[in-house]
Specification:
mainly beta; single chain; elongated; about 170 residues; six-stranded antiparallel sheet
Length: about 170
């Protein structure tokens, strides 16, 4: 984070910005027993590893003008941008009611999502008798932006000998 403020007389200039990056790997495991009428029908186990990365940055700048001790106006502009990415690899095991392996699977996905936003603000403030704490404000805010992303998922199933399902070999 970085902030800047400069006041000279009735005018105050300000700006701030920040950048954030985070990520890491998440590992999970699920073991499911499927039953019908309290009788085990089959088993499904999966192990998942997900790598994540996130990037955010924003900047905001503006000016305050103090007409007098009771009246001021502020104008500011802000921009924010972010991006999320993840890669997931999931190994799957399918077994029959006796626990014998019937097939295996793999699910691989890539996610990418991003956004951009902008915010423009104009704020007017009128203070009445500072001891009473009463004030009147008028605020205008305009915001807009875009977002979007892609998700690609690949699922594959394999016979117990490692050959792709549906392949006679």
């Amino acid at each position: 984070n970085l902030s800047f403020n400069y006041r000279q007389g009735k005018i105050n200039f300000f700006a701030n910005g920040n950048y954030n990056q985070s990520g890491g790997t998440a590992i999970s495991e699920a073991n499911r027993i499927n039953k019908r009428n309290d009788i085990v029908t089959d088993y499904f186990d999966q192990k998942t590893s997900t790598e994540r990365e996130r990037n955010f940055n924003s900047v905001r700048f503006g000016i305050d003008y103090f007409f007098d001790d009771e009246n001021s106006i502020s104008v500011s502009q802000g921009f924010t941008e972010g991006r999320f990415e993840s890669k997931e690899n999931q190994d799957q095991r399918y077994a029959d009611a006796a626990g014998a392996l019937t097939k295996t699977g793999n699910r691989y996905s890539i996610d990418a999502f991003g956004f951009k936003r902008s915010v423009t603000q104009v704020n007017y403030k009128k203070t009445y008798n500072k001891k009473s704490g009463k004030e009147w404000t008028a605020d205008f805010t305009y915001s807009g932006g875009t977002n979007g992303g892609d998700n690609i998922i690949t699922n594959r199933l394999f016979n117990t000998n490692g050959s792709p399902m549906g392949n006679p070999n």
